[in-house]
């Protein structure tokens, strides 16, 4: 009993840290300026249609939820970090979309079994630390015959490499947590869902990001907007040598990927995976 109480308290504290982390910087700008196409790609891949009941898990500012709502579907955008919802509501209003915004932990979704026709997550559920628990929740709330659609950064792509680059500088992961980019590995996701899904289709694609003069300019932008990177810098803030080393490592990563001529251009690889709930 005490163990269960302790585990629950520890998980609450962990989720509170994650919520605070995603509220740092300016995630709405990342979604709006760098990766808006990912939400549209996911909605198209999952074949969202008018009248369907759709849940977007770890929806952030509605990168997938808003285009899903524009199809005429009935959409709930859920996320651990409600601080992102005001920007999401503005995005929805600009787009002319109507949808609901609800605070929810992907590992304990507050929805009944089989209550959605389509369950989506765009570079979102991958950040819940316990992959099996989160996958079980996606399956549970999707009705039999319904669809699950995911976009996830791949381990081998730029964002996967960025997380590996930051790892030696970041706070140690909590016990039992798995690295987010594993969700970008088709076999890992197939293993999580097992025989509870059929018709798995997985494709690797890239999104091209640009707008910085140099790799260093990308790094300086990124360390000011992206919560996990800001949290990593905070972890080493009292050690200027490690800060300088992380500065160098992130700029070197961007330089290695940079294919721009007059400015930095980076391709970020992701996996689009869709499946049918058995
Ligand atoms: C990279 S953002 C993606 C947001 C949005 N789907 C998009 O495409 O822009 C990751 C999101 O995962 C959310 N998140 C992290 N851990 C979560 C959890 N355990 N449950 C629900 N959402 C979570 C964060 O709050 C954040 O909004």
The percentage helix is 40-55%
**CATH class categorisation:** Alpha Beta
CATH topology, by name, is Rossmann fold
- What is the beta-strand fraction? 15-25%
Mean pLDDT: 97
Pfam families: Methyltransf_11
Domain Methyltransferase type: 55-148
Protein name: Class I SAM-dependent methyltransferase
EC number: 2.1.1.-
Structural descriptors:
278 residues, alpha/beta, Rossmann fold, 7-stranded mixed beta sheet, 11 helices, binds S-adenosylmethionine, SAM-dependent_MTases_sf, methyltransferase, Class I SAM-dependent methyltransferase, transferase
Commentary on this structure:
There is one protein chain. This protein has 278 residues and is an alpha/beta fold. It has a single domain (2-208, 266-277), classed as Vaccinia Virus protein VP39 (Rossmann fold). It has helices spanning 2-22, 27-33, 36-46, 65-70, 85-95, 131-141, 158-166, 186-193, 215-225, 227-235, 240-257, and strands spanning 53-57, 74-79, 100-103, 116-122, 142-153, 197-212, 264-277. Helix 5 (85-95) links the parallel strand 2 and strand 3 (100-103). S-adenosylmethionine is lined by residues 15, 18, 22, 31, 38-39, 58-60, 63-64, 79-81, 84, 105-107, 122-124, 127-128. Residues 55-148 form the Methyltransferase type domain. This is Class I SAM-dependent methyltransferase. It comes from Geodermatophilus maliterrae.
């Amino acid at each position: 009993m005490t163990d269960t109480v302790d585990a629950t308290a520890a998980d609450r504290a962990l989720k509170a840290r994650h919520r605070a982390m995603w509220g740092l910087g300016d995630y709405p700008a990342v979604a709006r300026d760098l990766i808006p196409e990912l939400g549209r790609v996911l909605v198209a891949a999952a074949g969202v249609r008018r009248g369907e009941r759709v849940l977007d898990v770890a929806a952030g500012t509605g990168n997938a939820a808003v285009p899903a709502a524009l199809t005429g579907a009935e959409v709930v955008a859920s996320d651990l970090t409600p601080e992102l919802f005001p920007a999401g509501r503005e995005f929805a209003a600009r787009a002319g979309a109507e949808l609901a915004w609800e605070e929810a932990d992907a590992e304990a979704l507050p929805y009944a079994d089989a209550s959605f026709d389509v369950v989506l997550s765009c570079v979102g559920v991958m950040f819940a630390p316990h992959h099996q628990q989160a996958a079980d929740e996606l399956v549970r709330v999707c009705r039999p015959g319904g669809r699950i659609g995911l976009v996830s950064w791949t381990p081998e792509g730029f964002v996967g490499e960025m997380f590996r680059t930051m790892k030696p500088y970041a706070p140690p992961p909590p016990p039992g947590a798995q690295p987010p980019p594993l969700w970008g590995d088709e076999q890992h996701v197939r293993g999580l869902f097992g025989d509870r899904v059929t018709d798995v289709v997985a494709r690797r694609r890239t999104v091209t990001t640009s707008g910085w003069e140099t790799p260093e300019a990308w790094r300086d932008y990124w360390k000011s907007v992206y919560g996990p990177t800001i949290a990593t810098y905070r972890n080493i803030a009292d050690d200027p040598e490690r800060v300088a080393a992380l500065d160098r490592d992130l700029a070197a990563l961007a330089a290695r990927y940079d294919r721009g001529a007059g400015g930095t251009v980076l391709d970020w690889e992701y996996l689009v995976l869709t499946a049918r709930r058995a």
